[in-house]
Specification:
CATH superfamily: Regulatory factor, effector binding domain
Order of helices and strands: HEEEHEEEEHEE
Number of domains: 1
Number of helices: 3
CATH architecture: Alpha-Beta Barrel
CATH class: Alpha Beta
Strand order of the largest sheet: 1-2-7-9-8-4-5-3-6
Helix content: 25-40%
CATH topology: Multidrug-efflux Transporter 1 Regulator Bmrr, Chain A
Shape: globular
Number of strands: 9
Largest sheet: 9 strands, antiparallel
């Protein structure tokens, strides 16, 4: 009985450390600035300010593409640039199926990628401009400014597996369709936490541009 109590106590302590560490890891990370315009039952409408991203285009499925894209972008911000500077990590990591931009109406969430590729992005700290950001050493990494825009965002916790991401995209599509809100661009999967974070503390979102 005593051994069981000790095991439970140690488990509780380790679980608490895991939860606290998962929270503190992302507590002070900068993210793109936005204003919440309205809050609906399952999603909210935001007005984003313009921000700069470093992005790569990669192939394969979501998991492999994210890992490959993350490594390339992490290489850039951790001294893989012409100045040898370390750029502060931000949140979230953004992943979008790559296709030619067209204006369309919902539903669109499960439209297959026209190129079979994905765009993975890190947002850059707001103190930088395109002129002051170090130039990437890798020609696979591109810097660009994302203009301000209106976004519908659906938040959820847990693991952002490919199947779960698609389910959440379908849900947001249905919600927007019910409100006759058009979709302007492909849906983006946003993950705000490191892979080993405690599942219930993880913040994931599906983002999509709307008029």
């Amino acid at each position: 009985m005593r051994i069981l109590i000790i095991i439970l106590l140690v488990t509780a302590i380790l679980l608490t450390i895991w939860i606290i560490t998962s929270y503190l890891t992302v507590k002070n990370l900068e993210e793109p600035k936005y204003t919440v315009i309205s809050e609906e039952s399952w999603y909210e409408i935001r007005e984003y300010e313009s921000y700069i991203v470093a992005e790569v285009e990669v192939s394969w499925d979501q998991s492999v593409a994210l890992n490959s894209g993350f490594r390339l972008l992490a290489g850039y911000i951790f001294w893989g640039n012409t100045k040898g500077d370390s750029i502060q990590m931000t949140a979230p990591v953004l992943e979008t199926e790559s296709s030619e931009k067209i204006t369309m109406t919902v539903p669109v969430a499960d439209t297959p990628s026209t190129t079979g590729k994905r765009i993975v992005q890190f947002s850059m700290p707001s103190k930088y401009t395109l002129e002051t950001l170090p130039i990437p050493n890798s020609d696979q990494v591109t810097l660009k400014e994302v203009p301000g825009k209106k976004i519908a965002a659906l938040r959820y916790t847990g693991w952002a597996s490919e199947k779960r991401v698609q389910t959440k995209k379908q849900k947001l599509t249905k919600l927007l369709e019910e409100e006759t809100i058009n979709i302007i661009w492909e849906m983006t999967s946003a993950q705000y936490n490191p892979p080993l974070s405690f599942p219930l503390t993880r913040r994931n979102e599906i983002l999509v541009e709307i008029p």
